[in-house]
Amino acid sequence: MKIETSDTPLPRSRYQGFIEELLKGKTIINLEHKFYNSIRQACYKQEINLEYRIHTRKQQDGRYAICLHKITTL
After folding, report:
1. What is the phi-psi region of residue 62: left when phi exceeds 0, alpha when psi lies from -120 to 50, beta otherwise?
2. Rounded to an integer, what distance in angstroms lies between the CA atom of residue 64 and that of residue 51?
3. Rounded CA gap, 31 and 34, in Å?
4. What three-state secondary structure class fits 4?
5. Long-range contacts formed by 29-38: CB under 8 A, 24+ apart
6. Shortest CA distance to 52 belongs to which of 65, 66, 62?
7. What is the pLDDT along the chain (74 residues), one digit of tens a residue?
């Protein structure tokens, strides 16, 4: 397997602050659908779904909540 390195940093998502809070174990609530979907897509682009399960739910008021669950292996 060939690994390439670069001195240029990876581009930061405009939702990076939200992603960092999710990685700390926090849940983000009261998200409008477009923001919830953008955060979820940013997590997939950064391949966070390889280590964490992205858990989402729709609240009673129609807004969304999102959090991450660490994937455990036996």
Report:
1. left
2. 22
3. 8
4. coil
5. 29/59, 29/63, 29/65, 30/59, 30/61, 30/63, 30/65, 31/63, 31/64, 31/65, 31/66, 32/63, 32/64, 33/63, 33/64, 36/63, 36/64, 36/66
6. 66
7. 555 555 555 556 788 999 999 999 999 999 999 999 999 999 999 899 899 999 999 999 999 999 999 998 76
Q: What is the pTM of this model?
A: 0.75
Amino acid, single-letter form, for residue 23: L
Token digits for 17?
């602050």
Under DSSP, the state recorded for 31 is: E
Please give the structure tokens belonging to residue 73. 């292996």
Using an 8 Å Cβ cutoff, are 39 and 29 in contact? Answer: no
Give the distance from CA 49 to its chain's centroid. 8
